[in-house]
What we know:
The protein is mostly helical. It has a single domain, classed as Amino acid/polyamine transporter I. Helix content is 75%, strand content 3%. The strands form 2 sheets. It has a 3-stranded mixed β-sheet, with no helix packed on it. Strand 1 (122-124) and strand 2 form a beta hairpin. The longest helix has 35 residues, at 144-178. It holds the Pfam family Na_Ala_symp. Its main location: membrane.
Amino acid sequence: MLKAISGFVETLNGWVWGWAMIILLFGTHVFMTVRTGFIQRHTVGKGIKLSVSKDPDAEGEVSQFGALTTALAATIGTGNIIGVGTAIALGGPGAVLWCWLTGVFGIATKYAESLIAVMYRVKTEDGRMQGGAMYALSRGLNMKWLGMLFAIFAGFASFGIGCATQVNAIATVCKETLGVPTWIVGIVIAILTAIVIFGGIKSIANVCEKLVPFMAIFYVIGCIVILVMNYDFIFPAIGVICKLAFTPGAAAGGLVGGGIQYAIRFGVARGLFSNESGLGSAPIAAAAAQTRNPVRQALVSSTGTFWDTVVVCLMTGLVLVTTIMKNPAINADQVDNGGVLTSLAFGQIPVLGPIILTLGIISFAYSTILGWAYYGERCVEYFAGSKGLIPYRILYIAVAAIAPVVALDLVWLIADTLNALMAIPNLVAILLLSNKIVAETKKYINNLDAKDDTPVPVIKD
């Protein structure tokens, strides 16, 4: 029976994450880029500047930076480290370019989904901000049933992709590098998670504001050190990545590309998985931000995709490709395993390399646990009310405790499938509300200090 269920879920997972989903997501990225007048040109300048600015007089629960780091906590994860290696292993070095392009165009979708999350957010009677695709669908399009589906998909996905698989990654690396029994890791992570999530969004944002910059800077420094060590292969690597993104064949260093089909498939898929643009998760955190108008926070949120994919994933890709070119034997013997490939790359740094990678995986995975706990809470509250919060938190913590000692194959497949299914209602909201997104953008993009006086409706549980 279990084998039959696993087979069905695996087939369904392959379908929902197939070419149709990739085309739908990437197509939305390109469409929103055009509709917003290439909003990416404002992200690096205005967006980054706003992300470190405070707007305490604006309505919201946490700062713009707090909302951004909470979203980044859930977004920057093991996919940035191991996922890029897997993309190279399956799609060849050319997958790095397609992963990067997914991030560049995905900025527009992250901007759009965050804008409508703030635009259609609501406030609870005790003053907490609620928002996301479910509210955009119900308030903006009168499609509450579709909003309910999104909330259910996302709520249940949080247990797997946000919790169980992340704890398992931490437990595995702690056992392999530090010799710590996996069951101890599960208990420790469960306790640390409980301390944070019972404090709500302010507690989660407070931890993420400190953890995310540290973990990202620490990991990036490690990448820079490796690139300095491989400096004479950087420009050749860029050439190989661009060449094998469009053509099959071999290149210097024993690198082999599978052609444009495989490069696009695995590069785009890993890019989408990494930055979550279009999935509808990050806007849930954006809706809690203190912001004067929807465009301000949308710009801040869009920087998340910039940092996650355009910067971090690109650096990881260059690290891996230059390492393979410098050590051709790696490609022949190890490139079929993304995790091993990443370990070998960081192993080039004497003593500190494995430590950087270990701390990177632990901090990236733990931050994802916290970010997705918040996403799950908001979704559960949408379809079950505030009475569902305590049971959700208890179950989330229990999953964290047992994750290292249970088989996760089926859990991963189910969560991954739900993760894809939650994207569909979110993309419906983005596409059908695109005129509203364009109108709000024109209204505020050149006057970001203007205050939106539209009252935020108060809802009853």
